[in-house]
Amino acid sequence: MGRRSDPISFLTILKQILFDNMTMIMGIISGKGGVGKTTTAINLAASLSERGYKTFLVDGNLTTPNVSLHLGIPLYPVTLHDVLRGNAHIDEAIYHHPSGVKVIPASLSVEDIDDLNVDKFREAVLGLTSKKGLVLIDGSAGLGRETRAVIGVSDSIIIVTNPELTAVTDALKAIKIARRLRKHVIGVIINRIRGRTHEMETEEILDMLGIPILGEVREDINIQRATAKKIPVIHHSPRSVSSRDFKRTAATLMNEPYKEENMGFIDSIMNWLKY
């Protein structure tokens, strides 16, 4: 059980860093698209903020960003791309979202991709180190240049995967790249668990990846509803299965207890009908 959710030594360091009023940068990557990485990053950030941590969320997917769409800020006047071009400081690109998370969105404009300078990403993100808190970066899909830039600037890495062989295989590649770049991989979050017979068992994933399991998030129709409303699911449906899973994951990450919340009757019925 300890291997699944107990990276104690690192979590102790993390808590000490925050206690000392310093900054920790965590890259959230997957190796494969479509695993729900952005949803995970948003709800993990919102859960950490709810627990009282000063939390920033950077959209590190520079070519196909989604964080701003998920949170209802698609036309924010200053974005990370402005910072990368040298036209703004990252302080100017911070949006204080109602969830409590401080969001640094990337531009949705196709024109901003043309003169994209990924080499400036590290310098831009390090501009947040004076803010003192947790900085989560939602990496791009795949393991290309953008993802490597996220890994490079991060103090530690969280992997997101699905309980499917292709996703777990790509997650293993992501772990190997992070370690080549000498980054600490905290653990993995297994997302979109449906309980189907073709899915890999948790112990199989654990054995294949060889890193702690920080959380297991069940598939939940409330996530789609929350995304449509542009609200993190932990606020849209706080007692739903996925909300409880995200909150439990945040508690595990911070090595803190989690008080179980019961799922609402309507949500229970809707999930039973859907799945």
Describe, in plain words, how this protein is organized in 3D.
The protein has 275 residues and is an alpha/beta fold. Helices cover 43% and strands 16% of the residues. It contains 14 helices and eight strands. The protein has helices at residues 2-5, 8-19, 37-50, 67-71, 80-84, 111-114, 121-126, 145-153, 165-180, 202-209, 221-229, 233-236, 241-253, 265-274, and strands at 24-29, 55-59, 95-96, 102-104, 134-138, 156-161, 184-193, 213-218. It has an eight-stranded mixed β-sheet with strand order 3-4-2-5-1-6-7-8, with helices on both faces. A hairpin with a 5-residue loop joins strand 3 and strand 4. Helix 3 crosses helix 13. Residues 1-6 have low confidence and may be disordered.
In short:
The chain is α/β, with parallel strands linked by helices and 275 residues long. The chain is built from 14 helices and 8 strands.
